[in-house]
Amino acid sequence: MATADQGGEVRAAAVERFNELMWGLATTQCLHVAATLGVADALAEGPRPVAEVAVRVGADRDALERILRALVAMGVFSQPEPGVVGLTDVGQLLVDGRSGTMRHNAIFFGTLTYRTWEDALEAARTGRPAFPERFGDPFFDYLGKHPEEAETFNRAMQGGSAARLPPLLAWGWRDVRAVVDVGGGNGAVVGALLAAHPHLRGVVFDLPNVVESARREIAAAGLADRCDTVAGSFFDEVPEGGDVYILAQILHDWHDDDAVRILVRVREAMREDAVLLVHELIVPEDDAPHPAKLIDLQMLILLGGRERTRTQWAELLRRGGFELAGVIEGRRANVIEARPAAKRGDSP
Fold first, then answer.
1. Which listed residue (32, 104, 252, 279) is catalytic?
2. Catalytic annotation present for 252
3. 3-class state of residue 209 by DSSP
4. Which superfamily is assigned to 165-340 in CATH?
5. Among 77, 108, 135, 245, which is least packed by CB within 10 angstroms?
């Protein structure tokens, strides 16, 4: 039987944990402030006095010092001596322009994401995304009208893509010649594949305003002679001729019926011997903590989409005309390999 002292200790630990969870909003906004001001950029060459950093980034010295004190305690920045701050390994991720930078993720989470989550209760009550009610348009329509915020979002997705790529790069590409990235955004995924596998040719397929950015990125990477860009909507049709088709972080944006429509369009474009690689998270079917369980809520609240369990992925693929053939697991994403089914699945 627990003693009164033990019961008090258990409750105190529970209260401490509860407060850690509740104050997550402050963590998000501290990261957002540091990212937006460019604090990490000011420290990229080494530690500096807070007073100097404040002048460089245009912030009030006292306010910035207090925010950085909190971020030092979180392990984002270091304090090698009083009044001086530097970067930790975590803080290095906020430096702009570096491969894998997370600076734009912090900005995106502190602005559009943060404001949308204020309406999480309404999403829970209705099952509908909160973003359109708050901002007047569905998420991607809104980005189409707000190019600066679209740029932040696109760069945030690019920053996170490097951590998700290892299982995709490790898939067996030796006998593949042509890969089509459906909804390929700015071409980061295809660019990484072509760089790692010089025998590949690629196609980036996305909306007209998106592939223009992809064309520039591919040219800048020196891959224009091995990669084409094609404009269109994956709800209408998908380019033919690929040995492998990729849907990377696409299907989780959509509820099941729309995701099936996308899969059907891909299936229509594919040869019988072609392969579909779905590059997504898989939600574990247990009670353990996992990033997918929170990202799933992000999909609900922003887009009305969802992350899926392996069982749900198998069923979704079946409806779209595919069979789940295997999974390569990764820390930040999985590669779900699918093959055309003998019989077509449900039509949209």
1. 252
2. yes
3. helix
4. Vaccinia Virus protein VP39 (3.40.50.150)
5. 135
